[in-house]
């Protein structure tokens, strides 16, 4: 955000589908919402995996008549994609591993780790 030099409002949504699991439930729950009607939206994600979260938000934002929607993500797992999401700005493409740290959680733990780590989950064993 520090690189954006024109006037911009910053707001936050909280959207969840993984909960305490390392696989998506497929049910996208909005825990905190925002108003985007008639606005140009740059949606900033930490990670795109199946793409289902952003597919859902893209449809929702279209219904809510956003002026435009662009997508930016720090991490992307292209090999996991179930929904074809057009990513406008992508940081790093990563392999099919469940990762935590740098804000990413596993069952709400590890968000505080300053780096991104690969988790070996019980579900994988
Ligand atoms: O591309 P997808 O397969 O939809 O996954 C991407 C989403 O998964 C993570 O949130 P998550 O649903 O894990 O939030 P939670 O930990 O609060 O459940 C991440 O922050 C993305 O929003
Ligand atoms: N923490 C975390 N959440 C995810 N949601 C979808 N994929 C991932 C992942 O690799 N790590």
UniProtKB/TrEMBL annotation:
Q: Which reaction(s) are listed as its catalytic activity?
A: IMP + diphosphate = hypoxanthine + 5-phospho-alpha-D-ribose 1-diphosphate; GMP + diphosphate = guanine + 5-phospho-alpha-D-ribose 1-diphosphate
In which pathway does this enzyme or protein participate?
Purine metabolism; GMP biosynthesis via salvage pathway; GMP from guanine: step 1/1
Lineage: superkingdom: Bacteria
Keywords associated with the record: Glycosyltransferase, Transferase
Phosphoribosyltransferase domain segment(s): 7-106
Write down the SUPFAM superfamilies for this protein, in alphabetical order. Answer: PRTase-like
Q: Which GO terms describe its molecular function?
A: glycosyltransferase activity
What functional role does this protein have?
A: Purine salvage pathway enzyme that catalyzes the transfer of the ribosyl-5-phosphate group from 5-phospho-alpha-D-ribose 1-diphosphate (PRPP) to the N9 position of the 6-oxopurines hypoxanthine and guanine to form the corresponding ribonucleotides IMP (inosine 5'-monophosphate) and GMP (guanosine 5'-monophosphate), with the release of PPi.
Protein name as catalogued: Hypoxanthine-guanine phosphoribosyltransferase
* Organism of derivation: Paenibacillus auburnensis
Which gene holds the coding sequence for this protein? hpt_1
């Amino acid at each position: 955000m520090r690189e954006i030099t024109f006037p911009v409002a910053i707001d936050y949504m909280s959207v969840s589908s993984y909960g305490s699991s390392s696989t998506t439930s497929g049910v996208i729950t909005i825990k905190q919402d925002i108003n985007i009607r008639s606005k140009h939206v740059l949606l900033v994600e930490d990670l795109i995996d199946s793409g289902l979260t952003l597919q859902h938000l893209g449809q929702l934002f279209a219904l809510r008549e956003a002026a435009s929607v662009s997508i930016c993500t720090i991490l992307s797992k292209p090999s996991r994609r179930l929904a074809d999401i057009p990513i406008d700005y992508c940081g790093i493409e990563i392999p099919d591993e469940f990762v935590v740290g740098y804000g990413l959680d596993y069952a709400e733990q590890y968000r505080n780790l300053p780096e991104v780590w690969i988790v070996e989950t019980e579900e994988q064993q």
